[in-house]
Amino acid sequence: MKKRDYIIFGLVVIMALVLRLLFIDKPAGFWHNEMVMYNQTIAGGPLDIIKASVNADVHFPLYQLMLAVWIKIFGNGDITIRLFSVLAGVLNVIMAFFTGREIKDSKTGNIFAFLTAVNSTLIFYSQEVKFYIFLSLFVTISLFYIIRILKNNKNSDYAGYIIANAAIVYTFTIGVLYVIALGIIVLAYILWQKKNILKKFIISNIILIGIILPFAFYILTHMGKYEGANWIFTSNIYTTFILIQNYFTPCLAGIYNNPAVYIPTLGILQILFIYIPAGIAFFGIFKAVTTEKKNYFWLALPLLFLAFETILCMNSGLRMLTRYTILAIPPFLLCVSTGLAQLKSRTIKILITYLFIVNVFYLISSPLSAVRGYRDLGEKPAATVLNNYKIQDNDTIVLALRKNDFDKYISFNGRKFSLLQDFVHQPYAMDTDITNRYEQYKKYVINPILINPEFEKDFVKRVIQPMQKHDRIFYIWDENYNSYPLKSLEEYKKIPVMTGSLSRMNAEAFMLCQKYLKIKSADKLKYYRVFVFEK
After folding, report:
1. Which helix (H) or strand (E) holds 488?
2. How far apart are CA 42 and CA 39, in angstroms?
3. CA 519, CA 535: separation in Å to the nearest integer?
4. What's residue 56's pLDDT?
5. Dihedral of CA 497/503/506/507: which sign?
6. Cα torsion for 167, 246, 497, 261, to the nearest 10°?
7. Distance, CA of 418 to CA of 158 (rounded, Å)
8. How far is the C-alpha of 246 from the C-alpha of 228, rounded, in Å?
C-alpha cells in the first residue's frame, strides 16, 4: 500500500467523522422511536433490558445492551448517546476501506470508503439513537470476512463471519433474510469456483444456525407481533424509486414511516443532486459486472435480500422502508466501487470530485439534508413547556403514543395516559371479529357521530373523574395524528390505520377535555400543541 493511499484513507475517515458530527446537537431532543430505544436501554441490568426489549419490540436487543454499556461509561446526554452511532458510522467507513482493499486493492478500498463516508442514508443513521447504522457496520464486516474466506480459507475468518452475521440477526429481525441471502450467494460462488472450501463453509453455517436458534424460537412464538405491522406503515410500488434515491443520492425522501408516491421531476437541481449521482452508481455497477463475472455475485446479494423482503412484504404486515433495507447499501456500494475502480485515473478523479462537491454541498446547505432535516420531531420542546408550567405529581398527562415518551426530559410521577396504549385497542374502537386492520377500525374512524359514547364513558371514568379540584391535565396534541375527520373510505385507505384511529381518538379526547374541564392555556410548537386543562 502506497503512502498516497494511506493519506487518502486518512482524509476520507476525517471527512466521515466531520460529516457525521455536523449539526449533531438536535435541540428538539429524541423523537419517539429514539425514545423507545432509550427507555429499553435504561430498563436496568442486562436481563431487564432483554425483557423490556423483547416484550415491547420485535427485535433482539444487542444494540440496547451495547448502548447501555456506552451510557454507563460516558453518560446519558443526548449528544453523548448520539456519538455511539457516530462511532459506528466512522467504523463502517474504516471497514469499507479494508473490505474494498481485500476484494481488489487500496484504490477500490478508498472508493468504497469514500462512497460510504458521503452516503446520506448512512450519515442520517449515524446520528440516530437507533441500531440501523450498526447493521451497515455488521454487514460490511461480514463482507470483509467472506472475501477473506474465499481467498484464504482460515478458521479465524470463519469465526469473524459467524460473529458478524449473528450480530446482524440479534440486532434486527429482518436481518435473518440478509444472512440467508448471503449464505445462498456464497454457496453458489463456492460451488462455481471454490469447491475445496465447501466443507468448512457448511460447518461454519451449522455453528451460525446453532447460535441463532434462540432467535428462531422467539420468532416462531411471537409471530403475532409481525402480522399487524401494516396498520402502522404504508408503502407502494413507488417506494422502489425512493429506495434508489436514498441509496445513491444526497437527497433523502420518505426516510420515516410512510413514503409518498414518487413523482419524478426534471429540473437542474434534480439532475445535479439525484439523476447524475444515481447514474454514476448504476454505471459503476454496470462496469463491475461487465469486467469481472464474480461481481455478479456481489450484485446478486442485495438483490436477493430485497427480493426476500419484497416477498415478506406481500405476505405480512411488513413494509419496504429505507431503514429496513439498509443492509443492501454496503454490498451495492461495494459493487459500485469495484466498477469505478476499473476506470482511468482521470475519469475516476472527475467522478469522485463531482460526488464530493454534490454530497457535501447538499448536506451543508439544504434544510432537508441528512444532518439538517428531520431535526424538529423530538419530544424535548413539549417537555420544556411542561417544566415551565411546573408540572406536579397530582397532574395528569394525556398523549398519543407511549406514556414514557417525555420521561427523559421531565421529572414526573403522576398519572399518564396514552391513547394508543390505553384506548385505541378497546372494543368500542375496533371490530375484534375481523382480522383485517383496515376493516377493524373502519367503522370507528369514519363514523359521523361526533364522539363515540362508549369512548366518552371510558375516558371520563378513567381520566377525568379521579381528578380533584384544581388538578390539571396536560394534553399533548400530536400534529402527526391530526387527519380527522376523514370523509370517505378512499381517504381512509390512503393513510396507515394507526394514523386514522389515533387521529379520531386524539380529536375526541380533546373535545372531552373541553367538555368537562376548563382550558387554562395553550402553547403551539412545531409538531405539538400543549393544552392545560383544569378541573
Report:
1. none
2. 5
3. 9
4. 75
5. negative
6. -160
7. 48
8. 26
Q: Name the β-bridge partners of 474.
A: 397, 532
Give me the pLDDT at residue 375, please. 80
Grid cell locating 334: 461495494
The pLDDT assigned to 230 comes to 62
Q: Give the chain's residues under pLDDT 70.
A: 220-231, 259-260, 317
Q: How far apart are CA 285 and CA 446, in angstroms?
A: 48
For 332-411, strand residue ranges (E) read 396-399
Taking alpha carbons only, the member of 65, 166, 85, 86 closest to residue 130 is 85
Whether pTM exceeds 0.90: yes
How far apart CA 128 and CA 355 sit, in angstroms, is: 24
457, with CB counted inside 10 A (0-12, 13-18, 19+), is exposed
Provide the 10 A C-beta neighbour count for residue 73: 8
- Cα distances from 107 to residues 96, 111, 278, 343, 487, in angstroms, run 12, 6, 21, 11, 58
Strand bridging mode 396-399 / 472-478? parallel
What are the cell numbers at 133? 447504522
What are the two backbone dihedrals, phi and then psi, of residue 61, each rounded to the nearest 5 degrees? -95, 40
Residue 518, H or E segment = strand 518-524
519 bridge partner residues: 533
Query: Do residues 301 and 331 touch, judged by C-beta distance below 8 A?
Result: yes
The reported pLDDT for the residue numbered 220 is 66
Q: Is the peptide bond before 485 cis (omega within 30 degrees of 0)?
A: yes
Give the residue from 316, 269, 393, 382 showing the smallest Cα distance to 32: 382
Are 442 and 365 contacting, i.e. CB atoms less than 8 angstroms apart? Answer: no
What is the model's pLDDT at position 374? 81
Nearest to 530 by CA among 388, 343, 402: 388
Question: Comparing C-alpha atoms, which of 227, 230, 235 is closest to residue 320?
Answer: 235
Task: Collapse the DSSP code of 376 into the 3-class scheme (helix H, G, I; strand E, B; otherwise coil) and give the result.
Answer: coil
Locate 56 and state its grid cell. 415491547
Q: How far apart are CA 100 and CA 112, in angstroms?
A: 6
- pLDDT of 319 reads 77
Q: Please state the three-class secondary structure of 209-239 as a single string.
A: HHHCHHHHHHHHHCCHHHHCHHHCCCCCCCH
What is d(CA 375, CA 295) in angstroms, rounded to the nearest whole number? 39
The DSSP letter of residue 260 is: P
Element (H, E) at 123: helix 120-125
Helix then strand then coil, in percent of the chain rounded to 5, is 65, 5, 30
